[in-house]
Amino acid sequence: MAGGKGERFWPLSRQTRPKQLLSLIGGRTLLHQAVERLNGLIPPERIFIITNRDLAVPIRELELGVPAEQVVGEPVGRDTAAAICVGSALIQARDPDGVFCVLTADHVIGPTPIFQRTLAAALELAAGANVLVTLGIRPTSPSTGYGYIEAGAADQEVAGITFHRALRFVEKPDRETAARYLASGLFYWNSGMFVWSAQAFRAALARHRPALAELTERVRARLPREPIEAILADEYPKLEKISIDYALMERADNIVVCRGEFQWDDVGSWPALEGHVPADADGNHVIGECAAVGATGNIVVASNHLVALVGVKDLVVVHTDGATLVCARDRAQDVKQIVERLRADGRHNHLL
Amino acid sequence: MAGGKGERFWPLSRQTRPKQLLSLIGGRTLLHQAVERLNGLIPPERIFIITNRDLAVPIRELELGVPAEQVVGEPVGRDTAAAICVGSALIQARDPDGVFCVLTADHVIGPTPIFQRTLAAALELAAGANVLVTLGIRPTSPSTGYGYIEAGAADQEVAGITFHRALRFVEKPDRETAARYLASGLFYWNSGMFVWSAQAFRAALARHRPALAELTERVRARLPREPIEAILADEYPKLEKISIDYALMERADNIVVCRGEFQWDDVGSWPALEGHVPADADGNHVIGECAAVGATGNIVVASNHLVALVGVKDLVVVHTDGATLVCARDRAQDVKQIVERLRADGRHNHLL
What we know:
Chain A is α/β, with parallel strands linked by helices. The first copy, chain A, has helices at 30-36, 53-60, 79-94, 112-128, 175-184, 198-208, 210-222, 228-235, 244-249, 335-344, and strands at 49-52, 71-74, 99-102, 108-110, 132-137, 148-158, 161-170, 187-197, 255-260, 263-265, 285-293, 299-310, 315-319, 323-328. Chain A contains 10 helices and 14 strands.
């Protein structure tokens, strides 16, 4: 899934260059890293990238090794449930009994060997049972930015990885609740990554969201004769927007959560860089060139440009060719409002 | 006097483009405005511009109407006393009994008619008496950023302008003292602008700073045979750095302060722009393009570039091609430290 708009990373992310196409962390784009992370476990020929129509061409140009026709541009955004149904149809068209994983393109994950070991175990489990596996992450802090999954008792171990029955999905909690979750040891972060067989997915959809089961079947049936993007141009406009969590994960009773022990960060907004960019001598997290006098705790991103900070703290400063953002760290969620305002004002030069 | 380095206006001001050569306020450079302000009172042929060597060529290129040879570049900075002595020598060489005014190139002053009326009265007074006239400004706020002059009783009026004997010069006061000064009605801001006859200046120097009197005489004597800049290359390196306030104004007993009723602002640092750039709908003072969400009380300067502010207040944000400053308003004096650090680090590309 590589359809994120990444408006929270404006002005670096733009309509045709959202977060998954930025190289802020790890030297290459997050999408590159997402594909490379599967190296040796899932060959690029077996990867489908579902993105939005504007991004299909730029993504094909990244030369990820994924066949061009497996980069699918959605005509309009219909949230994760629709995107996963499309992926499922594409996979079923190739193998009705296929087992597949749904992965994110814009998260920071590592180390790769632990991630791959976890994913391999989940694929093994999903291949042999009518379960929906979700990759849970063992929390390392009482984060209020993630959803959580409550796990039941450990019920099985596959290839050294522990899997629990999932009891419930909970939305982003407040700080106190998150601390309780962390202390209990029974809650996992919901990474938004899933593993299941086409069969199990089909059955769960048929029970909990028949309209989406029918969509999947219609897409699958037309695939031998029509290009996928023509099919989506027909089907998507009439779909409702719904997330897979809401459509399926919060309803199904055959969900299994695995205990992911790898590092995982969805890099939700600018302050998340702090965890990936070590502080300099002044205590600022800098990508680029910065001079600071009495300034600390700031996050600075610039390229071929000097950012000078005097007497400021806890700011995010991002310089790009056409625009510079200066944002209070604790207001980083509101960067989207700048994007909305620019769109409303027709200042598209700062969005494209 | 146009020799200021204007480091407090970095990154817009640079070594070869200090404050007096910026067009932040009033549409033209402050130096342009300083020359135009004399229009009708003092013709450009009678104006000498004393600046530093690096700025002489850029200033000549401004086409101010001042003859090229009357733009004098000092080989090294020796503060205001030396610069005024050089000006005095140049004027005496033309007219030993000349009356002249010493004006600043980087202040915002207006309206011009009131300024000219004041200056004309001061010139008239100085032409007929052995006094050193200093242009005092009637304070409009308890500023702690200016020096003050304590005035004695009103002792004369010339052409409708009031002049007092000056009792003492005081350094920048604290807030409480400044408030007392303001309330008393007996204190004026020291604008650093002076009017006197060459004769009165010569006599005062001879008494209080004989070394500078001798410098002036040596420069005057060599002028018929040598170019001014060659003379200064000889004389300047051995001079001490001293301000005219310290050399003369705090010592002489024949100082008269005039009651300046015009607006005057020395535009000491970025926050001074607030008084000259009206606030926009969000309460920010913007030169250029700005988008703000929950941000107010900021000063923004940018050209052909969008500055987006989210959740910040009381900042100065200045974007230029190579560098961007983000500074707490109450720390604007420390911008000089950035300049010092860049110089120490040899990052001259950000200074030139």
